[in-house]
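Narrative of activities, Objective 1.

The group set out to show that a structural description can be obtained from nothing but a protein's sequence at a throughput compatible with the screening campaign. Below is one input-output pair from the validation batch, recorded exactly as produced.
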Amino acid sequence: MEEAKLKTLSQIKAFLDGTSEVTFRVSKGERNQFIERVFKRFGYASHGRVEKGVLLRYIERMTGLSRQQVTRLVRQYRKDGKLSKHPQRVAPKNGFTRRYTVADVAFLAEMDVLHNTLSGPATKKLMERAFQVFDDVRFERLPDISVSHLYNLRGNKQYQNKRRHWTKTNPTGIPIGKRRAPQPNGIPGYIRIDSVHQGDQDGVKGVYHINAVDCVTQMQFVATCEKISEAYLLPVIRQLLDGFPFIILGFHSDNGSEYINYKVAKLLEKLLAEFTKSRPRHSNDNALAASKNASVVRKHFGHAHIPQYCASLVNAFCTEYLNPYVNFHHPCFFPANNHG
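Output recorded for this entry:
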């Protein structure tokens, strides 16, 4: 392509309108010379804004540069009257000169072993004293080290080979609920709650049953939801708590995130109910709800998969039939005589 034949702006416009892309591009080493020739041939400074825009688009198309890059070159051309290529900086053949040797890194590791890895400034002060006060020539170069570079040396591979230091992760407590067993003291209103999953099938989750039992009266309500995320679970928890015929004084669950979250805590805060959660290695803290999972929920629903789209139907069955039967019409093997 003979680019020099384009001598007028109308020819430039026709070229830009007729080509969306060009296979030939000016090489990187000739870009500045090409741009300088275009500026001089068309008298860039003498044109208006629209014409300048045409020339800039033409330069972008021919060089592959972005508009920002071309604008910087224009600024340089208007300032200096030419485009000079800045010489590239050549890095030293062998890289930067290393100031601290492998032996220095080993002495630093030894100092950290003796003092259990103190802070950077404290370690630097110890190495200064080792050389200046106790004349330990091993630390001759290390007293002048900057604190930031001291941390760099601690991350060095040679340092890690000499000494590896781990710190335990500090446990972070979740400030939701008290970690202890419920203490109803013979008063109804202390609820234990647990979830029961109704099986998977072909990798698809089934419905979830939520089982709530009062510690004292053994009154129990079961509800079913599609998932145990907050959007599905909160309405079910409200439904269960509203079903008990007494004031809710306490709410106990295991440590699952479906219950230990701020939305459930906010709901219980409105009810002025105490929120407790199970303790580690104390499986009896929520044993009542777990036993009812087997004797009531599994007994009536079994272990077979129930699809999630059936959650509303199963929940209606629990409300209309299962909960009244469990609480009022369940056979009792040991009748009590209250007239004695």
